[in-house]
Amino acid sequence: MMTAGVLLLGLTLALQPASVDEADASEPVFSFPEELQLVPLEIQEAADAEEDADSAAVPEGLSAVEEALYRAQLAWVNEDWSTAMRYAQTAAVGGDPLAAVMAGLIAQDGRATGEPDLELAITWLRRAAETDQPVALFELGQIATEPAWRGELGSPRYWFERAARGGHMRAMLALGDDFRSSGVPQDMETAREWFERAARGGSAEGMYQFAQMLDQGEGGHQDQTLARQWYEMAASDRHAEAALQAAIMWAEGDGGPADDAEARRLMQISAESGYAPAQGQFGLMLYQGRGGEPDAALAGYWFEQGARGGDAESQFLLAYVLAQGDGRTQDLDRSYFWALRARHDPDGESVSNPMRERLIEALERSLPAEDLDRIRAEAALAR
Q: How far apart are alpha carbons 210 and 245 in whole angstroms?
């Protein structure tokens, strides 16, 4: 089952906004693999009291390599990347694979120098990969997905499979994606196996992907009952897309009984996670009173959240309540703006919706020509 459209819409048309500011650009966020415990808790605690890795006291009995790794970890916690890199390389030369991973990741993201150095990153990650270090294998697979490095590293699948067999969850997902997108029918079975392995290992994304394959009968038999269970398990870990799918299955009675109250609960999880399609759908459930009391004002809030997130259905629903003045102060200008925006999805593809077109026609009969031209230009600029 693919994501459903509007759950239920019995709207009658009785009949813009000011420009929407773009969200402030945030600073880039570096992220390292969750599976890698680069710094044990006791070293993190020690780092809180030691700002200088060079002069920090170290536990007794450490070898020179262990001491270098310890100081690298202290510097890592305190985000002293140049120092972390220096000690990590020292420990890596001495044969420590974790230190080699640290050096590889610092070089890969350019934390110490401000510029990524993939050649240096590959050198260190390869050294760690010689010991089958799962994170190093996964990161090499990630780099191998870039065409410029394919000649040196070969197929990403080679690295992902080694990392996945070492228990690396993100590698399992990457491997599943690779098999799923290969175009080879028998590869779908392998993709399903890897997604199931990730799901049973506790990965919410694995649960979601495995549920999708069960839901759609990809790589094996279709089982919507089991799919709904896996969607719900992923939703319990606040996986937004899974929560939306589980909500729709509960609303429509797919894979089990229908229950609007449960559908509404799951839809709220997805909406509150910031998933724009679910925000509009949750608003619609509130508007129609499905699974609880109706609340037009709160519905309008969620329509706007989804609209600003780029979801075309949310944009149409917001346009509708603005035209009606139901849960929102009536504003035909703003309604026309959002109705025009609802003609395209975030990728710029046209979205078919006859009800939206009827709303647009009604608004065009109600608004002055000069206002229509202004709002059209504004909507085009906002795309």
A: 13
Please give the angle made by the CA atoms of 357, 329 and 334, to the nearest 5 degrees: 40
How many other C-beta atoms can be found within 10 angstroms of the C-beta atom of residue 317? 30
> Does residue 364 contact residue 329 with C-beta atoms inside 8 Å?
no
**pLDDT greater than 60 at residue 336:** yes
Longest dimension (CA), the chain: 84
- Tell me, what DSSP letter sits at residue 25? P
> Whole-model pTM?
0.83
Residue of 292, 297, 299 whose CA lies nearest to 271? 299
Confidence of residue 32 (pLDDT cuts 50, 70, 90): very low
Q: What is the pLDDT of residue 43?
A: 74
For residue 344, the cross-strand partners are: 350
DSSP string, 31-65: ---TT---S-HHHHHHHHH---TTT----TT--HH
Q: How far apart are CA 370 and CA 225, in angstroms?
A: 54
Average pLDDT, the chain: 90
Q: Which residues lie closer than 8 Å to 82 by C-beta, 6 or more apart?
A: 112
Tokens of 311: 């979801």
Distance from C-alpha of 121 to C-alpha of 274, rounded to nearest angstrom: 34
Contacts of 190 (CB under 8 A, 6+ apart): 179, 219
What DSSP state is assigned to residue 4? P
pLDDT in tens, 215-237: 999 999 999 999 999 999 999 99
247 closest CA partner among 238, 237, 235, 376:
235
- Cα distances from 335 to residues 231, 317, 354, 363, 376, in angstroms, run 35, 9, 16, 8, 12
Give the relative orientation of helices 296-308 and 260-272 as an angle to the nearest 10 degrees. 40
